[in-house]
Amino acid sequence: MNPQFPTSIREFTRAMPMGLAVVAGYVAAHYGLSLLSFNLEIARNVSVWFLPGGLLFGSLMVARGRQVGWVMAGDFIARMIWSADLWAVPANMGWLTITTSISPIVYGVITTTLKSPRLGAGFQSSTAVMGLVIGMVLAPAIVAPLMCLTYATVGLFAWENLPTLIPSFLIGDLVGIGTLAPLIMALGSLARDRSPHALPWKAWRPHGSVLARTVLLPTVAALALYAVVHSERPEIYTSGKFLMFIPLTMVALRDGWRGASIAIVILNFSIVLALTVHQVPIAAIDIQLLLLSYSLFALILGVVIEERRGAEHLSALLSAAVHSSPNAVAIIDLTQPEQRLLFVNEALTALSARSSGALLGTSWRDLHGDSLDGRRVQDGSERIKNRQPIDLEVRLTRPDGQSIVRAKGGPVNDQKGRGTAYLITYFDITAEKHTERIEREREKLISLGHLASGVAHELNNLMHPIINFAKLAEKRFDTDPDRVHRYHDNIRSLGIRAGEIVQKVLLFARPQQQVRGPIPLADAVIDALDLIRTRVPPTVTLTVSVPDGSAGLARIESTEVTQIVTNLVLNAVHAVPKDGAITIAVDAITIEPGAKGAAVPAPGRYLRLVVADTGQGMDEETRCRVFEPFFSTKPIGEGTGLGLSVVYGIVVAVGGAITVDSAVGTGTTFSVFLPEAIDDEKD
Amino acid sequence: MARILLVEDAPEVRESIKDSLELAGFEVDEAPDGKVACELLAARAYALMITDLWMPNLDGLDLLKHLRKVNPKLPVIAISGGAPGRAPIDYSVALATTYGADTVFHKPFDNDDLVDAVNALLLQYAA
Known about the structure:
The complex is a heterodimer.
Chain A: H1 9-39, H2 41-46, H3 51-62, H4 66-87, H5 93-115, H6 126-153, H7 162-192, H8 201-204, H9 208-230, H10 234-240, H11 245-278, H12 284-323, E1 328-333, E2 340-344, H13 346-352, H14 356-359, H15 374-385, E3 390-398, E4 401-413, E5 419-428, H16 430-476, H17 481-508, E6 518-520, H18 521-532, E7 541-545, E8 553-555, H19 558-575, E9 581-591, E10 604-613, H20 620-625, H21 643-653, E11 657-663, E12 667-675
Parallel strand pairs in A: 7-9
Antiparallel strand pairs in A: 1-2, 1-5, 3-4, 4-5, 6-8, 9-10, 10-12, 11-12
Helix pairs in contact in A: 1-3, 1-4, 3-4, 3-5, 3-7, 4-5, 5-6, 6-7, 6-12, 7-11, 7-12, 9-11, 11-12, 16-17, 17-21, 18-19, 19-21
Chain B: E1 3-7, H1 11-23, E2 27-31, H2 34-43, E3 48-52, H3 60-70, E4 76-80, H4 89-98, E5 103-106, H5 111-126
Parallel strand pairs in B: 1-2, 1-3, 3-4, 4-5
Helix pairs in contact in B: 2-3
């Protein structure tokens, strides 16, 4: 985030109050810290004096936009005040100005770079904190030597002191920054953290136990150190100081880098206080290094822990989400050929009425074990083996029955692209299938309603002449015997026609749940063709493409096949001109999931009977109504208009589908799809 | 000799009605659908028209509407066998009378009753 400088006077004046507040606050804090660290003798030696560096670094990392500018201005002003006050050397004001401005500028550049989007760092992300740890080392490494050099240049200390002073300044600066900056950043991030991996504010907000850990632990530790020091047993101190890592570790593990930040500050301050009070003659650099190591260690550990925790949190969330998904989910292990279940969620155990213990480790195919969909499950298994997606409707067997489900699945690919697992989601469609069946029945009833009124109409048209011809025959008996004969013939044939209509109605209205033995479709079609070959005019070319032997079995009666073939062929005969062509073919076809098209049957394996003609074709309106009972384009007196509706009724009753492809001038193709009966179910 | 136009698509029904009407002394022109009926109406004068209601190529109702534009004074008897498909019988009756049929006969009926109705209507209209 680069500092945004006001682009107009008005913006500037509007930002002024906020900016001035920032500056004032910053100056006060800076002055206060400097006072504190300067007046503690040991603090000066330990160079906690460099706390203002921490204040600057931390504030720059927290500041956004314009605030960065205000912070830098505040720091500059504070340093001016402090330097002028401290050294009271007006003659060196020029040099002092230069030296004082080095820190804010260097820090400003470094923090701005660290926060830039290109580096991917908003300081909220703990990855960014790692980058900041590096920045924290980098900034003083640049500033400290420069400061030393400039001070020496203005005669504030001698050149020969530089080799000892530079490391001292450097480490001091690091301690100052390492102690205070993370704390400021932690507090700032808590106010506005949006990283998905950060611990939520609520979890961290200082309540009893957190405060206890972050405040008391380090305090106790410091007091312990003090006691150690007080014992004037330097050898205990030498190793004892490393015990301080223990409370820091505990806090970092528990509360991440934010808790560690508070703990670092408290520990470091406590140590400095303890040592000051006791006037311990310990080399400054020794203590500096100690405090620095505490800071860096706790920060890094805290960041790592928080990242881990965030990932675990996410992982737990994902796991819970899948577990509680309303759709049944199964994960299959692809490393073995049995395709065993690796994971099942609650919805799946509920759907299959089996416990996860019973399911895990068994093959997913057992879920569909005794169902009638052996072939579909087989196909699915093949596709899973080849890591292809599946989308099929199958029955799921339960101890107490069956459900109908839609299984949609795909391979689970890791980063490298190879899938060792497969995910299937089951959608329970039993209710929908039930509704579908009811809809079909309802439609059938509606068409039965049509059928009933159609039948009524047809029968009325047959009964009327029967009744009246009988009467007229009597009247004409003496005067016109030929007519009488004709009337009697008519009565007979009308009666027969009435009977035929009743037959067809019964065929159409047949109940659906009849069990039919599977028969070889090809043979049945050939037999049917033999029956009606004579009704096809010799000038019409009839092509039959039916493989011998079995193209497969279908659950349908041979009389029904005869009905279908007869009606479709006669329809074609009516449609073609004298020299037209009719083609009849039987084959097997698999409908893929996701196949498009009107009235395409559900995915699966079917036997297909195709009757195509090169006749006049149908327009869209006719095509839509072609299966309606009594809808007929034939001239009056030819046919009842029931033929195709009978075909439709049979096809629906055996669970198949029928499609019509037609256009005016190009002919018509009827395709009848009959579900293939699986061999192993032959009875 | 009154001439009657008989519009009916089922051939046997048409034949039986025609024969009954001829036995009663009427001259009968036949039309298998409304279209032919319109042509005939335009060509000749009829004393009465008998028409079925549900036919292809201009069904009975359309025919009635057309007739009422062309020749509002012609008596009409509608005959109905029930409607294949959608409309219940009452509906077609209501429509028929709205569109100007004088009476409606439901198949199957005795043709003699139809003849009586024809006579009654002709008398009524002559008066």
